[in-house]
Amino acid sequence: MPELPEVETTVAGLRSVLEGAVLTRVEARRADLRFPIPVDLRQRLTGATVTALSRRAKYGLIDTDRGDTLIFHLGMSGRWRIDPAEIGAHDHLLIETGGGRLLSLNDPRRFGSLDLVRSEAWEAYSPFTRMGPEPLGPDFTPDTLAAALKGKATSIKAALLDQRIVAGLGNIYVCEALNMAGIAPTREAGKIGRARLILLVEAIRDVLAAAIAAGGSTLRDYARPDGELGYFSKQWRVYGREGEPCHCGTPIRRRVDGGRSTFFCPKCQK
């Protein structure tokens, strides 16, 4: 599933084409993805001008001058394509601009979503109401993380995947950050001391920033809107590297928790 860096990269790619553009054609080519697509989406977006693009957790937001915000989630296999050579069966939303550009939201597995809300109320959008702070934002600090983890007996890996603790993190980048911070994924979340939380917050920020700079990680269907692949997978410290040596020389291990693979170094991470 595309995680925060992939969505950030996607939004940046869309911004270069959509910001300031007039939407001359908006066509939903099916009635639903994971959830129903708003029936008035075409009416409300056609003729509107895009004023801004942003991201919240793993969601992209496209604002218009009509006070509407299109919220998209890429699900398991979704990606935007800019000026595709041809339109296929899995291109479920088409957008044309006054500048002659064509964008398509392609989602073979249809686990993504599209919704349209009033811009002044996007923070009240149901998935956002209980989300924690953005990991790259000013509200994510060792103190706020310590407060969110207080008393939690769950593992630190599971806690960081909880969107109520911190928004936008997923399996790849949690594995990478825990390795960088030297924290075992099975450590009890509520018992990690402040000094180690300082390292963890820094590691999360560093891993996400490096992934965004590399265009994200390429997993199965993910690619940037311009068709280029993300290259952060070349920099993975532990993820997907079971049996390969950690930088310390110890073979990386994998365990499965809740159906998800966790990659870690048994020597570096305590």
Automatic annotation (TrEMBL):
Binds 1 zinc ion per subunit. It comes from the Bacteria. The keyword Transferase does not apply. GO terms for molecular function: 8-oxo-7,8-dihydroguanine DNA N-glycosylase activity; class I DNA-(apurinic or apyrimidinic site) endonuclease activity; damaged DNA binding; zinc ion binding. Residues 237-270 form the FPG-type domain. Pfam families: Fapy_DNA_glyco, H2TH, zf-FPG_IleRS. InterPro entries: DNA_glyclase_Znf_dom_DNA_BS, FPG_cat, FPG_Glyclase, FPG_N, H2TH_FPG, Ribosomal_uS13-like_H2TH, Znf_DNA_glyclase/AP_lyase, Znf_FPG/IleRS. Its cofactor is Zn(2+). It catalyses: Hydrolysis of DNA containing ring-opened 7-methylguanine residues, releasing 2,6-diamino-4-hydroxy-5-(N-methyl)formamidopyrimidine; 2'-deoxyribonucleotide-(2'-deoxyribose 5'-phosphate)-2'-deoxyribonucleotide-DNA = a 3'-end 2'-deoxyribonucleotide-(2,3-dehydro-2,3-deoxyribose 5'-phosphate)-DNA + a 5'-end 5'-phospho-2'-deoxyribonucleoside-DNA + H(+). Residues 2-112 form the Formamidopyrimidine-DNA glycosylase catalytic domain. The active site is at P2 (schiff-base intermediate with dna), E3 (proton donor), K58 (proton donor), R260 (proton donor). Monomer. Belongs to the FPG family. This is Formamidopyrimidine-DNA glycosylase. It comes from Sphingobium chlorophenolicum L-1.
